[in-house]
Design a protein that fits this description.
Protein name (chain B): Formate dehydrogenase subunit gamma
Structural class of chain A: alpha/beta
Number of helices of chain A: 22
CATH architecture of the largest domain in chain A: 3-Layer(aba) Sandwich
Shape of chain B: elongated
Number of domains of chain A: 4
Family (chain B): Belongs to the complex I 24 kDa subunit family.
CATH topology of the largest domain in chain A: Rossmann fold
Low-confidence stretches of chain A: 519-524
Strand content of chain B: 5-15%
Keywords (chain B): 2Fe-2S, Iron, Iron-sulfur, Metal-binding
Distance between the termini of chain B: 11 Å
Strand content of chain A: 15-25%
Number of strands of chain A: 16
Distance between the termini of chain A: 76 Å
InterPro entries (chain B): NADP_DH_HndA-like, NuoE-like, NuoE_N, Thioredoxin-like_sf
Oligomer: heterodimer
CATH class of the largest domain in chain A: Alpha Beta
Helix content of chain B: 40-55%
Pfam family, one (chain B): 2Fe-2S_thioredx
Structural class of chain B: alpha+beta
Mean pLDDT of chain B: 96
Number of strands of chain B: 5
Chain lengths: 524, 157
């Protein structure tokens, strides 16, 4: 091919998932190949589009728009140059325009609209793609108007509990105190979830904008993002964006030239799962053990350092700029029942096309796993999916018509949680998974509630006895009773929801526990 | 390979002092101590207690609550294998067993020669490209036996 002196723009994600799949090595290979061919290139590191099975997904700017290739390995780069990928040429790895890929075309992207497209370190890029329109409108509306708009949107907490965001904000706005805080719960510890990580790495200004709007709404001037030590890339991306926002007068005193002031910091946890629970998170942020607090008092009244505090998940806060920019009614138009708007769903585990799929509530689990996810990566039939992290139920295939909706899931003793789906194929050992749930709880329990602290250890022992065939019937009864005690006798979701994976495994796959299936009993 | 400094009380004072202006500074202080020395030495507990005007027991309680804080130095390299559900669904169990066999030690232990500490980690957030691992802070996804062997050789060399 002929060399071209015009600089070609190439986009390579620096999302942790892309990096873990070799994106940095691909960038080096592109630079080396371009240099060898005397072809000037500009490499822009973006977030990920969310088609994670195609990472590293390399995109080239062409007159027809960006053309994607993936998954690109270091060794593919020379071949890509040879076939003219800089002009969008044909290649076995050519995906075409990413937005036209069925995985992307089927989505409704509000929160993730910019993720994978913009340079997450660029304020100019953010503004050029609709950023800070929400803040602009928020400043015009004022605190009361902002909360009214969020109320109209029907936004519910995306961390798992589904509590109406506007009510939380109103409570803090009405509280009188010398200081108030906005705390972002970015302690995304659930296996199968990565939406918080992706947005912090791919569009961090959106979280900054959301938290700033929350600050104006309730009269808070300080915000904290509490995230995980397992997320070094997200921490670096957030800290960089905070610095850039300060330089542009979007954080600090008199933000965007207004009378409001707001600044924020990133804080890192230290590998304790329970700190994802909001009150344990506050204790950890204060410098204590991550111990769950009894409610009341609510964090909205006495939260961080005993001051009125809004504590919201990353996905709740990043929905806010859109709600303000486009209006609460626009957002509420998406969804079903009392679950309004969109949910960034994460498809993971043993799945062919895993990734981030943002869509309106109401889509069924079967569509997500089979149609969009393409079934298992192993090629074996799907057995079950755990939805909502380690505390979520195992949903068997015969319940895959379940629509993604807080109430529909609750009616089946399941939960949406933070929107993570972990797919298991038929080789999954459900007894082992139930035991793992109890073991995880025993390791991660903060120790405050006896049913959680001790019950989980007893749970592991009882399951071991069942596996050993020791007084099976009696021990199954003990296990069910124990789950009931944990459910009712724990302050937070760790002890209270660990029974979900255990009981769902037992209910849907009783044979594996050596239990007589109910339907057979009836036949006898 | 991470390089840590030998214990020094003066150095510890300086490291801790950098965070004194923060609200709720204990966690950032503990992270900084561990980043400097590779672990949280017992000697730092009374120093923190003094500075923050809390009891030693309170500081000890915090240090021991979190999985991340080490009470003694790790091996020269730290290999973390994700053992959460998504990685289990994608064959993580077999890989963990393979790593234990190859290194001759269990998860949570350090090899006899002190070169490699192998630990479980509960979720790196790379669940759509599972199983995953982290070697000295570098993340690796789509782990298979071949890739794991390469990481182990790298850690042992």
């Amino acid at each position: 091919m002929s060399t071209n002196s015009v600089t070609v723009r190439i986009y390579v994600p620096k999302d942790a998932c892309a990096i873990a799949c070799g994106a940095d090595e691909v960038v080096e290979a592109i630079q080396a190949a371009a240099l060898a061919r005397k072809q000037p290139v500009e490499i822009i590191r973006t977030g990920s589009r969310g088609m994670l099975w195609l990472e590293p997904l390399v995109e080239v700017a062409t007159p027809e728009g960006r053309i994607a290739y993936g998954p690109v390995e270091e060794g593919d780069v020379a071949g890509l140059f040879d076939t003219g990928f800089l002009a969008g040429g044909a290649h076995a790895l050519r995906i075409g325009r990413p937005e036209e890929h069925p995985f992307m075309a089927k989505q409704t992207r509000l929160t993730f609209a910019r993720c994978g497209i913009v340079d997450p370190t660029s304020y100019t890029d953010y503004v050029a793609h609709g950023g800070y329109k929400g803040l602009e409108r928020a400043l015009a509306l004022g605190p009361v108007g902002i909360i009214e708009e969020v109320k109209k949107s029907g936004l519910r907490g995306r961390g798992g509990a589904g509590f109406p965001t506007a009510i939380k904000w109103k409570t803090v706005a009405d509280a009188r105190d010398d200081r108030k805080y906005i705390v972002c719960n970015a302690d995304e510890g659930d296996s199968g979830t990565f939406a918080d990580r992706m947005i912090m790495e791919g569009d961090p200004f959106e979280l900054i904008e959301g938290m700033t709007i929350a600050g104006i709404a309730v009269g808070a001037t300080k915000g904290y993002v509490y995230t995980r030590s397992e997320y070094p890339h997200a921490i670096a991306a957030m800290e960089k964006a905070i610095e850039v926002a300060r330089q542009h007068g979007m954080l600090g005193i008199n933000i965007a030239g207004s009378t409001h002031s707001f600044d924020m910091e990133v804080r890192m946890g230290a590998g304790a799962y329970v700190c994802g629970e909001e009150t344990a998170l506050l204790d950890s942020l204060e410098g204590g053990r991550g111990t769950v607090r009894a409610k009341p008092p609510l964090p909205a009244h006495k939260g961080l350092f005993q001051k009125p505090t809004v504590i919201n998940n990353v996905l709740s806060l990043t929905a806010v700029p859109h709600i303000l920019a486009d209006g609460g009614e626009f957002y509420a138009n998406f969804g079903m029942g009392r679950s309004r708007g969109t949910m960034p769903i994460q498809i993971a585990g043993n799945v062919k096309h895993g990734g981030l799929f943002e869509t309106a509530f109401g889509i069924t689990l079967g569509e997500l796993i089979n149609d969009i996810g393409g079934g298992t990566a192993s090629g074996r039939p799907v057995k079950a999916a755990q939805v909502g992290g380690p505390l979520g139920a195992y949903v068997p295939t015969w319940q895959f018509d379940l629509p993604f909706d807080y109430e529909a899931f609750a009616a089946k003793d399941a939960l949406i949680g933070h929107g993570g789906i972990v797919v298991f194929d038929e080789s999954a050992d459900m007894v082992k998974m139930a035991r793992f749930a109890m073991e995880f709880c025993s390791v991660e329990s903060c120790g405050k509630c006896t049913p959680c602290r001790i019950g989980s250890t007893r749970g592991v022992e009882v399951i071991d006895r069942i596996v050993a065939g020791e007084r099976r019937e009696k021990n199954l009864e003990v296990l069910k009773d124990l789950c009931q005690t944990m459910k009712l006798g724990s302050l937070c979701a760790l002890g209270g929801f660990t029974p979900y994976p255990v009981l769902s495994a037992l209910t849907h796959f009783p044979e594996e526990f050596g239990d007589t299936p109910r339907r057979l009993e009836a036949a006898e | 390979m991470p390089h840590y400094e030998p214990w020094s009380e003066e150095r510890a004072e300086a490291v801790i002092g950098e965070f004194a202006h923060l609200e709720g500074p204990l966690m950032p202080m503990l992270h900084a101590v561990q980043e400097t020395f590779g672990y949280v030495p017992d000697a730092v507990v009374p120093m923190l207690a003094e500075r923050l005007n809390v009891s030693r027991a309170e500081v000890h309680g915090v240090v021991t609550f979190y999985h991340d804080f080490r009470h003694e130095p790790a091996g020269q390299h730290v290999l973390k294998l994700c053992r959460a559900e998504a990685c289990q669904a994608a064959g993580g169990d077999a890989l963990a067993a393979h790593a234990e066999h190859k290194l001759g030690c269990k998860l949570g232990e350090t090899t006899a020669d002190g070169r490699v500490t192998v630990e479980p980690i509960y979720c790196l957030g790379l669940c759509a490209t599972a199983p995953s691992a982290m070697l000295d802070g570098r993340i690796v996804a789509r782990l298979n036996e071949r890739r794991l062997d390469a990481l182990i050789s790298e850690a042992q060399s």
